[in-house]
Structures are given as structure tokens and as C-alpha cells.
Design goal:
Layout lengths: L1 H17 L17 E6 L14 H8 L6 E3 L12 E3 L14 E3 L7 E7 L2 E11 L26 H14 L6 H9 L26 H11 E3 L7 E6 L5 H8 L9 H7 L10 H5 L48 E2 L5 E2 L4 E6 L20 E6 L3 H9 L5 E2 L10 E3 L2 E2 L3 E8 L2 E7 L12 E2 L16 H8 L4 H7 L5 E3 L25 H10 L1 E2 L2 E2 H4 L1 E8 L3 H17 L3 E8 L1 H9 L5 E7 L6 H8 L6 H4 L10 H12 L4 H18 L2 E14 L2 E2 L16 E2 L8 E13 L3 E11 L8 E9 L24 E3 L8 E3 L33 E6 L6 E6 L7 E12 L7 E12 L4 E2 L8 E4 L2 E11 L26 H9 L22 H9 L12
Parallel strand pairs: 1-12, 1-13, 3-16, 22-23, 22-24
Antiparallel strand pairs: 2-4, 5-6, 6-8, 7-8, 9-11, 10-11, 11-12, 14-15, 16-25, 17-24, 17-25, 18-22, 19-25, 20-21, 26-27, 28-35, 29-34, 29-36, 30-33, 30-35, 31-32, 36-37, 36-39, 38-39
Length: 991
């Protein structure tokens, strides 16, 4: 069964990787295109409306097009280390404290803050007064007629600023980040919120229905409004329940603080800016009735009441069913159609008339990024190939695949920069759905393999089921295998780096895989009258495709239940990112894995999404009050109180208590807090790290290519010893390849340098290089007494007395030596240029006065014009034998030998990557990844060898089966083998 299971794993990995064909190059690199930044990523943005988008892929796109009133001003640029790593320290992180870490953007200055008496006591409420920057301008955009239509660049007004924030509260989407604004303004996360202690809105905050639109309108207008004394220049925010100052500044600096163009929004069918009767029915949670997608992302022809929603129509030029669109004040401009969801590609171009001036961008000397192109490439082998070829400047690198880019744990391939020790305000969590949608294709069932009854949407509303899963995760294995030790286990939603650190509960027990605890809670789980420990179950756990860590985390849980008994079945399924998010919001997934990037570095940003019934995650997990933890009423009340508790000692105690209740209730399973790595090509400059940014901010980046590097040698030295006198030695090249990485400008030389014994050295009479264009079209060179040399024979038979059977798909060059020579004299045997250099070099040592010699020869690869950061490779399978029947081992490089057809063959590669502006380079040797049996191809034989040793340590398992070198033969090795399946020495990218 183990064998069959592993083959299924490998087959699944192969299916995932094979359905993505190798895409053609889409960039002009190399040479380096300094004007364009190319990114290879996984997944795609989900929304383009700053008030609705709530994922990092969307946030990265938005933060380059839109701008907030204030933003992060601390930019500690990290040095570029080519072919090495830069280990980040605390001082490299951006300053997130207020006011030192912030600068005005669409405002002229940081806000003037006035303290007032508020619901929490004297001087607890805050008025923030911003003066709007008179120079800030919106980009042009295409109007409903399909032309610019008068929508030219115009200055930001106070109407735009007020609209930007009020519109979010008007929409009041439960899936959006507006909860942070509403909490600080009103002490509830959404107007629809009903305080659990009250049961309705009468005695508690929130709980406003559509019929309460006058009350809601008054609240919104009393929170954000134009300064009555300076209505054309100033905007005021009224925070009745403010968080600590640094947390408030962080909230206002994020993408949901973006200033949007009111005209642009209204034209697309967003809120019209008026609180006329009926506004709530038209715009609250509308037009789709759930607040899931706004008219910025999807075309809606009519409002909820049937009236016209948008100035656009379905027949408007450039407008179809979906019209994702953007119009901000930022340095980059989005053109309609710049996000192709079919090809998974999006593009931004610099706005040439950006009001913030391009003189401040990049290196401040005119070098900056003009165009950004991100391409979704889910297949790691393809994404890696494009990254190493230089066609991507940066790429998403799954932790399980990072060794493809490393020569050692902290040393990347030359031409790459690596930043390590990036402590991140993020985590990985496994979530339960307490009430799965009845229409979901993914359900849970009592009983396996035979289901008892129909699907059970409330399967994980049973706390004993959640606890059984909580004890099924092998944290030790996950941290080792998925994160290679670069992660911390956390007992709750807490992540280190939140302020203050005293709010962390350090007394909670860390869970880990425990079969006895699993058995106990399964025995206590009575679901629909069935004892799960007796009948079993089947359910589905979902992750976003391309995220190997999340796949491994969910597979760890599935493996634990499989080991517990065949009656427990957890299916692990991958979905594309936008599809994954839609399924999450629709409540379709029984179990799913996701991460959370801090909105702001305060515990309130973590307790709310994970524990509050209206929180960003828990809201999607439960259908209040049908399914929720038993003590949810008390938890919700404590979260509301802790967020704005002015007594910091009491606040810390409440958050510690909430972490303990989270551990008890298990609404989700905390997995790890990762320590991040960043890979990029070493021509990328200007990068800095901010814990809260969702992605790159290209305005500060630039690319600096290197100059040409000439006459760089790639040398491999081989020796065989000792050689008996009067014997003939065959140095046999079964296969010799050059990488097809750019640039393909190589000259290969095979050079006899010397022998290390006393006596005579052979003299070369004849030599010929066959310029073979394909491995299936090889020729042979024959030297004969009749013709001397230079006689071609294109037949496939054996010719000549001293000729041996060629290695499959190989060839040879015949050399006969006579006469005298001197030790240390160089003899150039062949020089050739092309894709393949097969050779059978026969070197007679007749006439030597020594009883034995050490024969040494060199292989050289030389380029006369090698651009900076280029990669080039020699690789071969070389064997040596003699007429005496001796099979010779080859040293330098020394790798595992394999005897084939009487020869001892060594497979090796040597790669040089040249740093820009320098003649420095690295050389290293590596076997073809996944070629366990050294037959030159990664195939089913290697899969069987891996299967036979699956689950073993090294030893007793052979080291060759441990492909990633972690001491275990496991799923990570199976994934690596699958990623290289069908590759051979002749076709492999040797890096």
C-alpha cells in the first residue's frame, strides 16, 4: 500500500505540474530591460476597489495606483549581495511608530490631533484634522463614451476625501477592511453587527437594519466630514474609540485609506454621494446583495431597486460583464484590460505626468521602473526557468523549492540576491467552516467509505471534531519539511512583533501530533447521533494552488488520520487563488488553509478576525447564531472591550484571556509564524522591508545592469590513475551538453594538459570535431592508415579496430598519438561550438618509460562576449576504460560512479554565473535532481526507488533518495522528483 500511495502522490504532483505548458518568453531579458519589472507569481488579484480588496495580491496592485493621506516614510534600503545572502536585523525593518515613521502624501502634513471627552472617559476621543495637498492630482480615465471625455487630470478635493471613507461605510461589506474604521469610530465592526449580549440592536451597538438608514447616515456623517471652518481644504475624522496612536496611523496608511476619485466611482455605479431616502437599500451590501464585489470590479446595469446603476452600459466601448478599473493619484496607471484574468497577467505603466514627480523615484538619477508586468505561473519548474533565465526580475519561490536556487542553505546561485531572517507579521492557520453552504461541492460526511446519511454542513460545529483535528497536526514535521526550520509555532492567533509584547499569553500549551488525544476526542464526537470513532468520516481540506507549504500542512493532518485508521478520510484539494477566495466567502470549504498579514501591529487586529463573530475570518466560518463556539457571546464582548480599553494593564490581561479561550474553542488551528526569504535578480536595487506592505512598491525600485564580461573560463579537471604502460585508454563522452540558458555563445575545448609520471607524452596526429545539431543525428570520425585523417563516416556501424560501441545517443572523436613529448606540454585536442560534444578519445600511452602515469585532461567553456549576470553550463556523462579491461574511476569532480557497458561513468555539471560588472564567478557540481539510479533520466524507476524508501531516514534509506537533503525520504522529495520528471541529462536545465 505504501508503494501505491506514493505513486499516487507522485502522479498527482505530475498532474499538477504537467497541465501547465512551458510558456514562451514574454520579456526582452536578457540583456536587462531597465524600464520594466517582470514578476513571476502564483495566483492573481481578487479586487481592484481599495475599499473592498482585502488580500495581498490585490493590495500590491492597489498601493502602486492609489495613495492615502499619510504613508510609511521609513525606507531602510537593504544592500544587494550578489550570490550571497543579507541577514536582516531589527534595524532593517521600517519604523512603524507614530509620528517618526510617517510622512504626508495626499495631505500636506500629519494630522492635527485634538483630544476630547468621549464614551471611554475624559480626553479619550480624538479629532484628526487633515489639510489636503493642493498639488495631488488624479490620473485621467476613460469615461462612459469610451473616450477621455473631459475626465482629465484634476486636483483632489475635500469631496473626494470624504467620499473615499464614507463610501466604505455606506457599502459596509462584511468581507472588507472597513471594520477597522467602524471599530475606532463607533466601537462595532459593522452596522449590521448585533451585540451577542443583547440579541438585537436595541440595547447594544450596531444591529442597524436597512430601515435604520437615517440613523446610520447620521453616524457616518458625524464621523468623517469637511471642516466647517475650512471646507475646501480640510477634512476631519472623529474617533470616539481610538486605538493607540501608532495603530491608528498604520490603519490610515494602508490601501483602505486610499483616496479615490468620486466622479470615477459614481460613473461606475458606486454610491452617488447622497444620503437621500432609499440610499441604504440601493448601496448597502449592494449591488450583489452581499457586499462581495463592487461596481469597480463587476458591471451592474441596475441598482437594487431597478434604477440605472452606472453611466456605462454593456455596449460601452471597453466595457463588458466585468470592468475592473482604477483611477488613483499614485505613480502608476492602470489601463482598462491591463489585467487579463485568462492569461493571469496584469500590467501597470508609469503615469508620465505623476504629480509626485519621477525625479524622486528609483535611484533619484533618472533610473526607475516604467512598466510593471506580473505573470501568474503556477508551475514552479516553468517559473524557475524564467527566473534563472533572467526573464523574471523577481519570483515567488515556494520554500520547498528554494534549494533549486541555492548552493548551500544561505548561499544563492550567483546572479541572485537573497535576503533572509525576515521576521514577518503574518501567520499560517487552518480554518474550520462551522456551517458549510448547502450548495457546496465540498462537504463532510459521517461514515467512510460508506457515508451514513447525506452531507453534514454542521460537521465542524462539534468542538470535539475540531479538537481531534487540532491534535492531528505534526508541527515538528511541518516546520522542518515545509519551512526548513525557519518558522515559529504559536499557540494562538498571536504573532511575535505585535505591540505591546506583554499582551502575549506565554502559558498556553503548545499542541503537536498526538494519536491518543485524537482518539479521545473522536470517541467524544457524537455527530448526528453517530460516534465518529466507530463510523469514521470523510471531509475536504482546501489550499490555494502553488502554495506548497499549505499543501504540506493540510497533508500532515490528512496523513495523521490515515495513520489512525482507514475509516478517516481527509481529501486535500488545491484551488486557484481567486476561486479559493470566492469559495471561502461563499462558505463552501469545510477546512481551508490561509494566512493573515497584519493590518496594523496591535493585538486587536488579530483577535477580531480570528475570534469575533463579525471578524474577517470567523464571519465566513459561521452563520450566526446557528453555528459558533459555545462561549461566543462572552468572547465577542471581551474583544469589543479590549480593543479600546484605555487601561493598558487591563487591556493586556484581556488579550491574554482571549488567546486562552481561542485555544479552548479551536475556531481555527494556528500553524506557524514564518521567517521569510526574498529572492531577486541582483540587478534589482532599492528594496526595503516594511512589515505591513502587501507587496512591492515599484516607485522606489530600479534596475542596474552590469557591463560585458569577457574571456570567462568554465573549467573542469579530470584525472585517472594509475595507467599501466603500453595500454590504450578510452576517455568516453557519452553525453556532453551546454545549457540553453541565455546567451548561447559557447566554445567547448577538451584539452590534454599533462601526465604526472616520468617519460614520454603522446603526440597528436589527427582529430576531428563533429558538429552535431541534435542527439538523434550523430556522426563518427574515423582515422585510417589509408586516408590519414579527416574521413567522415555517417553510418551507424562499428568502424576501425580500436573503436568501441558508442554510448546511446552519443558519438566519439578518434585520436591516435605517436612520437615524443614532454611532461607539462599542452595539446589542444578539439575546439567546438554547438549544443552537444560527444567524444571517444583514444589516447595511447605506448612508449612511456614509466610503469604508471596519472593522466589529467581539462574541459573548458569559453565565451568572448558574455553579458553580465549570464548563466552558462557544461555537463557530461564521462566514462573511462582500457584495452586491458580496466574500468577507471574519474576524479575531480568526484561523484557517485555508475558502471555501464564496461565503463565507470560519472554524471556531473559545472555552472558559472557571472556577476554584473565583475569577472568573479562560482563553480559547483550537481547531479540531475531526481535521477536516483543515475541512468540519465528521471523516470518511473526513480519513483519506485523513492517509494521503496518512503518514510525512512537516511540511513537506512540511501542518500540518493533524500533529494532535498533533510535526512528524511518524504513528500518533499516526491514533489522534487515530480517537478523534474522526464528530464534527462540532454535536456535538463543544469541549475
Amino acid at each position: 500500500m505504501k508503494y501505491l500511495k506514493l505513486l499516487c502522490i507522485i502522479a498527482t504532483c505530475l498532474l499538477v505540474t504537467s497541465i501547465f505548458t512551458v510558456i514562451p518568453a514574454f520579456s526582452a531579458q536578457p540583456p536587462v530591460d531597465t524600464s520594466t519589472y517582470y514578476v513571476g507569481t502564483i495566483g492573481q488579484p481578487a479586487r481592484l476597489d481599495p475599499g473592498r480588496a482585502y488580500d495581498t495580491a490585490s493590495g500590491e496592485l492597489i498601493q502602486n495606483v492609489y495613495q492615502p493621506l499619510i504613508w510609511f516614510g521609513s525606507k531602510n534600503v537593504v544592500p544587494v549581495v550578489s550570490g550571497g545572502d543579507y541577514n536582516l536585523t531589527a534595524s532593517d525593518h521600517a519604523d512603524l511608530t507614530y509620528p517618526s515613521g510617517y510622512v504626508p502624501v495626499v495631505a500636506t502634513a500629519l494630522p492635527i490631533i485634538t483630544y476630547m471627552n468621549g464614551p471611554l472617559g475624559p480626553n479619550t476621543a480624538e479629532l484628526w484634522n487633515f489639510t489636503i495637498n493642493p498639488n495631488a492630482q488624479f490620473q485621467t480615465w476613460t469615461g462612459p463614451s469610451g473616450a477621455v471625455d473631459g475626465m482629465l487630470k484634476r486636483n483632489v478635493t475635500t469631496d473626494d476625501v470624504v467620499y473615499s471613507f464614507q463610501e466604505q461605510m455606506v457599502m459596509d461589506s462584511p468581507y472588507a477592511p472597513v471594520w477597522m474604521l467602524e471599530t475606532a469610530a463607533f466601537n462595532f465592526p459593522t452596522f449590521a453587527y448585533v451585540a451577542p449580549s443583547a440579541g438585537n440592536g436595541a440595547n447594544g451597538p450596531g444591529g442597524y437594519s436597512l430601515s435604520d438608514e437615517a440613523v446610520v447616515a447620521a453616524l457616518i456623517q458625524s464621523w468623517c466630514y469637511k471642516d466647517p471652518s475650512h471646507p475646501t481644504t480640510n477634512v476631519i475624522f472623529n474617533w470616539s474609540y481610538p486605538l493607540p496612536l501608532s495603530a491608528m496611523a498604520q490603519i490610515m496608511s494602508q490601501t483602505w485609506g486610499s483616496i479615490v476619485n468620486k466622479q470615477f466611482y459614481v460613473a461606475h455605479g458606486m454610491w452617488d454621494g447622497y444620503f437621500l431616502p432609499g440610499w441604504s437599500a440601493n448601496y448597502r451590501w449592494e449591488p450583489d446583495g452581499a457586499g462581495n464585489r463592487t461596481p469597480i470590479d463587476r458591471y451592474y446595469g441596475t441598482l437594487f431597486n431597478g434604477s440605472q446603476a452606472s453611466q456605462y452600459t454593456a455596449s460601452t466601448p471597453n466595457v463588458g460583464t466585468d470592468i475592473p478599473d482604477m483611477c488613483g493619484t499614485g505613480p502608476y496607471k492602470y489601463e482598462y484590460g491591463g489585467w487579463n484574468q485568462i492569461t493571469e497577467t496584469w500590467r501597470l505603466d508609469s503615469d508620465p505626468t505623476y504629480w509626485g514627480f519621477w525625479a524622486n523615484a528609483g535611484d533619484k538619477a533618472g533610473n526607475y521602473i516604467h512598466t510593471i508586468i506580473e505573470k501568474g505561473v503556477d508551475s514552479w519548474p516553468t517559473r524557475k526557468m524564467l527566473f534563472l533565465d533572467g526573464e523574471f526580475d523577481g519570483a515567488v519561490v515556494p520554500r520547498a523549492n528554494m534549494f533549486d536556487l541555492l548552493t548551500s542553505f544561505y548561499v544563492p546561485l550567483a546572479g541572485l540576491q537573497l535576503d533572509t531572517n525576515i521576521t514577518e507579521l503574518t501567520n499560517e492557520v487552518v480554518f474550520f467552516n462551522f456551517n458549510v453552504s448547502a450548495s457546496s461541492a465540498y462537504q463532510s460526511y459521517e461514515g467512510y467509505p460508506g457515508h451514513i446519511g447525506s452531507a453534514d454542513p454542521l460537521f465542524f460545529n462539534n468542538i470535539n471534531m475540531r479538537l481531534a483535528f487540532a491534535w492531528a497536526l505534526n508541527y515538528t514535521q511541518v516546520i522542518s519539511q515545509a519551512w526548513f526550520g525557519e518558522a515559529y509555532q504559536q499557540a494562538s492567533w498571536w504573532v511575535d512583533g505585535l505591540v505591546p509584547a506583554a499582551a502575549k499569553n506565554t502559558t498556553i500549551t503548545m499542541r503537536n501530533l498526538d494519536y491518543n488525544m485524537m482518539k479521545y476526542y473522536l470517541s467524544q464526537a457524537i455527530v448526528n447521533g453517530q460516534n465518529i470513532s466507530k463510523v469514521g468520516f470523510e471531509t475536504t481540506a482546501v489550499y490555494n494552488t502553488g502554495n506548497d507549504q499549505r499543501q504540506i500542512e493540510l497533508q500532515s493532518i490528512a496523513n495523521a488520520f490515515a495513520a489512525l485508521g482507514p475509516q478517516y478520510k481527509v481529501n486535500v484539494l488545491g484551488l486557484d487563488w481567486p476561486v479559493f477566495l470566492d469559495n471561502m466567502n461563499a462558505g463552501n470549504m469545510p477546512i481551508f488553509c490561509l494566512g493573515w498579514l497584519a493590518d496594523y501591529a496591535d493585538p486587536s487586529d488579530w483577535a477580531s478576525p480570528y475570534q469575533q463573530s463579525s471578524g474577517s475570518f470567523l464571519y465566513t466560518q459561521i452563520t450566526y447564531p446557528t453555528a459558533m463556539p459555545a462561549d461566543q457571546v462572552a468572547v465577542d464582548n471581551e474583544i469589543v472591550d479590549a480593543a479600546t480599553q484605555p487601561n493598558m494593564t487591563q487591556r493586556n490581561l484581556e488579550y491574554q484571556d482571549l488567546q486562552y479561550k481561542f485555544w479552548l474553542d479551536v475556531p481555527s488551528i494556528p500553524v506557524i509564524q514564518p521567517v521569510g526569504r526574498r529572492f531577486a535578480r541582483d540587478w534589482v536595487h532599492g528594496w526595503y522591508y516594511n512589515d505591513l506592505l502587501p507587496g512591492l512598491y515599484w516607485y522606489d525600485l530600479y534596475k542596474q545592469p552590469g557591463g560585458a564580461v569577457t574571456n570567462v573560463d568554465l573549467d573542469v579537471v579530470h584525472s585517472i590513475a594509475p595507467i599501466a604502460t603500453n595500454s590504450t585508454i578510452w576517455i568516453y563522452y557519452g553525453q556532453m551538453v551546454q545549457s540553453d540558458m541565455k546567451p548561447a555563445m559557447f566554445t567547448f575545448n577538451v584539452t590534454v594538459i599533462r601526465h604526472d609520471g616520468a617519460g614520454l607524452m603522446p603526440t597528436i596526429i589527427s582529430l576531428e570535431r563533429d558538429n552535431i545539431t541534435a542527439l538523434t543525428d550523430y556522426r563518427r570520425r574515423q582515422s585510417s592508415a589509408a586516408t590519414g585523417y579527416d574521413e567522415f563516416n555517417t553510418s551507424y556501424g562499428i568502424n576501425g579496430a580500436n573503436m568501441n560501441v558508442p554510448w546511446p545517443n552519443g558519438g566519439w572523436v578518434y585520436i591516435e598519438g605517436i612520437g615524443a613529448g614532454t611532461s607539462g606540454v599542452s595539446y589542444i585536442l578539439t575546439a567546438a561550438q554547438g549544443d552537444v560534444l560527444p567524444a571517444d578519445i583514444i589516447v595511447p600511452t605506448t612508449g612511456s618509460t614509466s610503469t604508471s602515469v596519472i593522466l589529467t585532461w581539462y574541459e573548458d567553456g569559453v565565451s568572448s562576449t558574455l553579458p553580465g549576470n549570464a548563466t552558462w553550463t557544461m555537463g557530461a556523462r564521462v566514462g573511462v576504460a582500457s584495452t586491458a579491461g580496466t574500468a577507471w574511476n574519474i576524479t575531480n569532480p568526484s561523484t557517485t560512479q555508475v558502471t555501464l557497458g564496461g565503463y565507470n561513468f560519472t554524471s556531473y555539471t559545472v555552472t558559472t554565473e557571472v556577476s554584473h560588472g565583475s569577472t568573479t564567478y562560482q563553480k559547483y557540481a550537481a547531479l540531475l535532481i531526481g535521477d536516483i539510479n543515475l541512468d540519465g533520466t528521471v523516470n518511473i524507476l526513480d519513483a519506485i526507488a523513492l517509494s521503496n524508501n518512503f518514510g525512512k531516514g537516511v540511513p537506512p534509506a540511501p542518500a540518493a533518495c533524500d533529494l532535498n537533503g533533510d535526512g528524511q525520504v518524504n513528500i518533499l522529495d516526491a514533489i522534487l522528483l515530480a517537478n523534474h520528471f522526464s528530464q534527462s541529462i540532454a535536456t535538463n536545465h543544469w541549475t
